[in-house]
Amino acid sequence: MVKNPTIAFLGAGSMAEAMIAGIVATEQTPPNHIIVTNRSNTARLVKLHNKYGIQGIKQEHLSFDKIDVFILAMKPKHAQAVLQSLKHHIRPNQLILSVLAGISTAYIENYLHEGQQVIRVMPNTSAMIQESATAISAGIYTTANNVGYAQTLLQCLGEVYIIDENHMDIFTGIAGSGPAYFYYLMEHIEAVGKEAGLDSEVVRNIGAQTILGAAKMIMQQNDTPAELREKVTSPNGTTAAGLAALKKHGGGRAIAQAVKDAAKRSQEISAQLRKETKTV
Ligand SMILES: NC(=O)C1=CN([C@@H]2O[C@H](COP(=O)(O)OP(=O)(O)OC[C@H]3O[C@@H](n4cnc5c(N)ncnc54)[C@H](OP(=O)(O)O)[C@@H]3O)[C@@H](O)[C@H]2O)C=CC1
Ligand SMILES: O=C(O)[C@@H]1CCC=N1
């Protein structure tokens, strides 16, 4: 990878913004080396430019040859059209990072030039505050040097795990979609706290601090989650009552099923796109 590469985000939605915020905050890449473009929403490009100092450029004005790294950040259903058009503008040694759920490196390579360097990435929106759990899997043509570059770039968004691409779907179910499960949990905790008369902002902070503390305990102590749970649970105490309710109402099963169904959806997106490609 060149020194001070220019990075272009194709897609300017929630995920692109979370990554831009993380990269800019850590000064990993200077803002004038970061470009963002989208399909049609120019107001969004202006907003991102004003907020982060990066360049918001309409697609028709992009100088593709000056870009070293493309980050695909549109919805998976738009991937095919974007890749077909991208092929006319790029060279195989320009690095493609794709955050698209369910889209394999092979699918992307198939649409681009022989030898195109592709890395599949699964971040989450906590990239915005450099707390993402991000996975990467390289395609068959990607050099070790570029994997190293991607790892360094993404480390400014949080923790990075290099995984086998076969595990991308389950990683997506756990970490890509994961923040939403905890937000959903928080919505319910907040509602109950409010019902009991607590101020909603206060209960929100209490809930968040409780999740943060539990997460830090898991990361900083040697105990397993089950051991930590047991340490909270006094015989016949309040936690035992709470956990019994979770068990009775299928709390554990529901969480496991959420992860499984998200991973399944990632596989379905992949299968659907392969089917559409065959029928074109
Ligand atoms: N949100 C998340 O938590 C995560 C998302 N992802 C992945 O990130 C990707 C984006 O998700 P998200 O940010 O939530 O989606 P959003 O809907 O927020 O954003 C999609 C963006 O893609 C743009 N777009 C659509 N078509 C094109 C095109 N032809 N060329 C360039 N840009 C285009 C849209 O532009 P316009 O508004 O002009 O149409 C919009 O800026 C998805 O593939 C998703 O799987 C991965 C991990 C986590
Ligand atoms: O919901 C989605 O499909 C994307 C991928 C992971 C998180 N959001």
TrEMBL record:
<dbReference type="InterPro" id="IPR028939">
    <property type="entry name" value="P5C_Rdtase_cat_N"/>
</dbReference>
<dbReference type="InterPro" id="IPR036291">
    <property type="entry name" value="NAD(P)-bd_dom_sf"/>
</dbReference>
<comment type="function">
    <text>Catalyzes the reduction of 1-pyrroline-5-carboxylate (PCA) to L-proline.</text>
</comment>
<dbReference type="InterPro" id="IPR008927">
    <property type="entry name" value="6-PGluconate_DH-like_C_sf"/>
</dbReference>
<dbReference type="Pfam" id="PF03807">
    <property type="entry name" value="F420_oxidored"/>
</dbReference>
<dbReference type="InterPro" id="IPR000304">
    <property type="entry name" value="Pyrroline-COOH_reductase"/>
</dbReference>
<comment type="similarity">
    <text>Belongs to the pyrroline-5-carboxylate reductase family.</text>
</comment>
<feature type="domain" description="Pyrroline-5-carboxylate reductase catalytic N-terminal">
    <location>
        <begin position="6"/>
        <end position="102"/>
    </location>
</feature>
<dbReference type="InterPro" id="IPR029036">
    <property type="entry name" value="P5CR_dimer"/>
</dbReference>
<dbReference type="Pfam" id="PF14748">
    <property type="entry name" value="P5CR_dimer"/>
</dbReference>
<keyword id="KW-0560">Oxidoreductase</keyword>
<keyword id="KW-0521">NADP</keyword>
<dbReference type="InterPro" id="IPR053790">
    <property type="entry name" value="P5CR-like_CS"/>
</dbReference>
<comment type="pathway">
    <text>Amino-acid biosynthesis; L-proline biosynthesis; L-proline from L-glutamate 5-semialdehyde: step 1/1.</text>
</comment>
<keyword id="KW-0641">Proline biosynthesis</keyword>
<keyword id="KW-0028">Amino-acid biosynthesis</keyword>
<protein>
    <recommendedName>
        <fullName>Pyrroline-5-carboxylate reductase</fullName>
        <ecNumber>1.5.1.2</ecNumber>
    </recommendedName>
</protein>
<dbReference type="GO" id="GO:0004735">
    <property type="term" value="F:pyrroline-5-carboxylate reductase activity"/>
</dbReference>
<keyword id="KW-0963">Cytoplasm</keyword>
<feature type="domain" description="Pyrroline-5-carboxylate reductase dimerisation">
    <location>
        <begin position="165"/>
        <end position="268"/>
    </location>
</feature>
